[in-house]
């Protein structure tokens, strides 16, 4: 009796072929393909049809400076974030689970804090009469306030603080997967701590560094709030320039062209990462 009932129950089957992917393809088309195509068409048709918007971006020294500043800031922020995040991730990977959960929760909690609030807090800390300069002057390390805001230094400090969780999370997962016996074996074979780090720990953690580094770099390319508030007009980045073109100058063609170039760079970096990671997997991680 029970066997017959089991046979009569309908069996849910997952749709095969294009039917199973149709909902996902529809969402991708509506929320990604259509906006990107509209962006491209505007960059090619406003104010008149042609490639004049792209010629202006690549031919004008002012716009070239903004592109250079954007990639410079993204590169510096990514490098500093990797340097700061690696020891934190390693500490999380080796500390007791209970304590690690507490520290990990604090890091996650920082991601939930309002971005604008955190940026304004750094403005208060980094200004000439802020806590950092006053503390350094009180203990005698400096005789006059350091220029920590409205320059690359302020942008780097603020963005590194915001980007740290995005680098720490993939690094922790990679470092926890490394067998501690590998490092112990290296020590028993006479390797110094630096050699063990350089020849074992660092190569094994490269997947986490690559994943986190790409995420931080791509997010830094399109960041708007923090560079605008901490960098000022002299350190304008591409996102701020696009906002100014569209909101203030109403130049949708030039703004769309700049946004499309930024999108192409982001996709090219992602494709490069997939190619490098795929090649490494095919060669067995050599």
Walk me through the structure.
It is a single chain. Helix content is 78%, strand content 0%. By secondary structure, it is mostly helical. α13 (238-248) runs antiparallel to α14 (252-282). The radius of gyration is 25 Å and the shape is globular.
Largest sheet: none
The percent range for strand residues is under 5%
Q: Provide the structure class.
A: mainly alpha
Taking pLDDT < 50 over at least 5 consecutive residues as the criterion, the unreliable ranges are 281-286
Listing every helix as H and every strand as E from the N terminus to the C terminus, the arrangement reads HHHHHHHHHHHHHH
Question: Percent range for helical residues?
Answer: over 70%
Termini separation (Å)?
59 Å
Q: How would you state the average pLDDT, rounded?
A: 82
Number of helices: 14
The shape is globular
Write down the oligomeric state: single chain
User: Over all CA atoms, what is the radius of gyration?
Assistant: 25 Å
Number of strands: 0
């Amino acid at each position: 009796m029970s066997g017959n009932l089991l046979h009569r129950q309908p069996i849910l089957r997952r749709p095969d072929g294009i039917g199973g992917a149709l909902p996902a393809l529809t969402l991708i088309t509506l929320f990604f393909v259509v906006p990107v195509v509209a962006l491209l068409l505007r960059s090619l048709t406003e104010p008149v049809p042609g490639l004049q918007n792209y010629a202006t971006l690549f031919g004008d020294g002012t716009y070239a400076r903004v592109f250079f500043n954007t990639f410079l800031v993204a590169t510096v922020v990514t490098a500093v974030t990797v340097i700061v995040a690696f020891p934190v991730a390693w500490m999380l990977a080796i500390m007791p689970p209970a304590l690690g959960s507490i520290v990990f929760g604090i890091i996650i909690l920082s991601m939930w804090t309002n971005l604008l609030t955190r940026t304004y807090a750094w403005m208060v800390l980094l200004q000439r009469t802020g806590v950092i300069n006053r503390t350094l002057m009180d203990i005698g390390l400096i005789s006059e306030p350091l220029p920590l805001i409205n320059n690359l230094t302020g942008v780097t400090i603020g963005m590194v603080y915001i980007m740290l969780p995005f680098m720490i999370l993939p690094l922790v997962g990679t470092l926890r997967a490394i067998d501690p016996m590998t490092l112990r074996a290296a020590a028993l074979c006479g390797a110094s701590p630096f050699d063990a780090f350089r020849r074992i720990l660092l190569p094994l953690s490269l997947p986490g560094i690559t994943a986190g580094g790409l995420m931080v770099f791509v997010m830094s390319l399109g960041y708007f709030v923090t560079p605008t508030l901490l960098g000022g007009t002299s350190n304008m980045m591409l996102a701020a320039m696009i906002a100014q073109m569209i909101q203030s100058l109403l130049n949708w063609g030039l703004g769309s062209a700049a946004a499309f170039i930024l999108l192409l760079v982001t996709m090219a970096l992602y494709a490069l990462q997939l190619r490098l990671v795929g090649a490494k997997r095919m060669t067995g991680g050599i």
